[in-house]
Amino acid sequence: MSQYAIVTDLNRCVGCLGCSVACKALNGVQIGSYWNKVIRVGPNPIDGGSGQYPDVYMYFLPLSCQHCENPECVKVCPTEASHKLADGSVQIDKSKCIGCQFCVMSCPYGVRYLNKDEGVVEKCTLCEQKIAEGGIPQCVAQCGGCARWFGDLDEGFDSFTGPGGRKMTEFIEKFDEDADIFHLPDVGNKPSFAYILRNHRWKGANA
Questions:
Q1: Of 5, 41, 4, nearest to 183 (Cα)?
Q2: Kind plus residue range of the DSSP H or E element containing 73
Q3: Structural domain total, the chain
Q4: Long-range CB contacts (within 8 A, 24+) of 44-51
Q5: What is the pLDDT averaged over residues 143-155?
Q6: Domain range spanning residue 47?
Q7: Is the pLDDT of residue 95 over 70?
Q8: Residue 130 belongs to some domain of the structure
Q9: With bands split at pLDDT 50, 70 and 90, how would you rate the model's confidence at 35?
Q10: pLDDT at 75 exceeding the cut of 60
Q11: What CATH number does residue 9 fall under?
């Protein structure tokens, strides 16, 4: 069994929202809803600094379904509409979804929502239609800062590719030496997506 995931280099993300726009355009996400949104974390004071410019830092955090190893949303779904595939991604079978929103309430990251027009829950699918054809998620393919990378955690970071098919381990020099790896808070669900952050204190999605 695989575990597909996205790794985001937060030091390279400039908050351009290109990933959000690309996602909405490809997947027809409704106005006012997002499968992928970008949160500004900070500004926060640099340790030992005054807390005033220039002694502050901030970073941008792309946030979407984390395609967890042990997803809470799957556990609470009464119809098995929310389910986990062999590739590790978490998907929603709209033909089974009754719009009860139990999964929305159980998600620790608030990345699911009810499509009121269709009466079903939606979220990031990791662009399964592109992956099935050997591609990568649109948010990764269209990342102008080369900050996002897609691959299989079971195969290691050598499997992760980004825009133009570039390898993450080739693009991020001395990756293992310079970078700290973080995840969103784990409440037993084991989020799969990872974030790289250098020279700043990790605050997750909290400003």
A1: 5
A2: helix 72-76
A3: 1
A4: 44/200, 44/201, 44/203, 44/207, 47/201
A5: 93
A6: 4-197
A7: yes
A8: yes
A9: very high
A10: yes
A11: 3.30.70.20
